[in-house]
Amino acid sequence: MAAQGFSTTNLDRESDIPKNEISHLGKITDFKNHHITPEHSKSRKSKFKSDYLIFPKNRYEPHLDLSLADRLVHKGSLFRATLRINKSDPCHEAYATISYLSSNTATSDVFPNDFISPYDDIFIFGPRLRNRAFNGDTVIIKIYPNDVAKNIHTAYKKYKSKSTSPHNNNDDDFANNDPALSFTDTFVELNTDDFIEDPDWKLYGQVVSIVPNPYDHKLFACFYSSQSNDELYHIFSSIDSTAPAFRISHKDFSEFVQKHKINDLTKIVFILKYIVWDIDSMCPTGSIVEFKVIKNKRDSENLLLLYRNSIFNNPFPKYIIDTLPSDTFEIPEAEINSRADLRSQTVFTIDPASAKDLDDALSIHKLPGGNYIVSVHIADVSYFVKPNSKLDNLARQLATTVYLVDYNIPMLPNVLSGNLCSLLPGKDRLTFSVTWNISENGEIMDYWISKSIINSTLKETQPDAIRKKDRMQIS
């Protein structure tokens, strides 16, 4: 019996998903799986016979309207999940981990087995069933009933046995024949129970909608790969093995290269922003946000890590820098008089040796009666960064300073993070101080919080502090 194509018509009427529905899978080429060496050469033609378009009969399914999808999730007909693409086989293998399970699922008749639980992994076989979802996306999925899933299972087992064959060229095979197509051509009449008892049996599903994430800017670090056969697009391969290739229009790419006078693409990583993924396209369309010249593999890996998490190492804009005090800023006398003056106390910082933004300090001294006064001093950034100012709004977006192996990306401009708000030795600095009066037995007798001014005595490193702790005399 021929498989029936998945249709959203019935879903639009909010009827349950028929148990015998299944999608026709298309012959989809995933460019990123070919690892083309970047070349700035127009003579390098794409090796893909179908280039970037999918034959009409093999197009992706339109995504289900999200409001309808949500209703069907609460009804127990569909499931909300998080997509994870297998880095070892990103073309074929992905899992959707169920993140929400409606209480109505127990009375629904659409799921294939007698049990589906939160955090179950639903296997998504092939790019078309993945339906243009990216790794990490929150997706809405349908789960195939067993009479359909057994055919996907057969196709998957066939693919796995073929892909492990020493005579099989996986790239070329997939470019010309999507192995998942086989289960849409013929339904085999086999005992479903036999398949479920197979140790390789999985729950099989398909992405029918993608839940938007306003915090995911979908930025990708990519190398240039090739120009499409019709010369209308340029293809870029992502450094992230779970991400697809991208296409950029020839016009946009040419204008960008000319504007930035780029002559050698082999040392360039392009930062692409996802725009759209058409149902008839093998790869999504993107736009170039910026580019970085890389010197080594670590540079490209850092870029991938940063941009996948929407972290941008861009200079602070001039209109913000112009509003900041200079490095020679001196605290006004009126401000000093309004604060607790702790500059005469012995204050020290403990940080990694390479740290420049020293944002907290400690002090401790013993009272004549035996109690201790212990204080923690935090840099008073609020003196320089006013609520809802342009710098405040930008800092909210950055959220934190990001530390990499050999450099960091500051949340605030260096004049603040590395100087005026850094509790450097020998420098007067504005702080908030929390102070405790602690007994010899460790009991807190009193505490107070105050705006203060300190002058750090010592920048201590963490290893040195550990070595000295047993010898340290508190005075």
TrEMBL record:
SMART domains cross-referenced by the UniProt entry: RNB
Domain RNB span(s) in chain numbering: 339-475
Origin superkingdom: Eukaryota
Gene3D superfamilies hit by this protein: 2.40.50.690, 2.40.50.700
A Pfam family that the UniProt record links to this protein: RNB
Example GO biological process: mRNA catabolic process
GO molecular function: 3'-5'-RNA exonuclease activity; RNA binding
Keywords: Exonuclease, Hydrolase, Nuclease
Keyword Nuclease belongs to the record: yes
A cellular component term, taken from the record's GO annotations: P-body
Descriptive protein name: DIS3-like exonuclease 2
Species for this entry: Smittium mucronatum
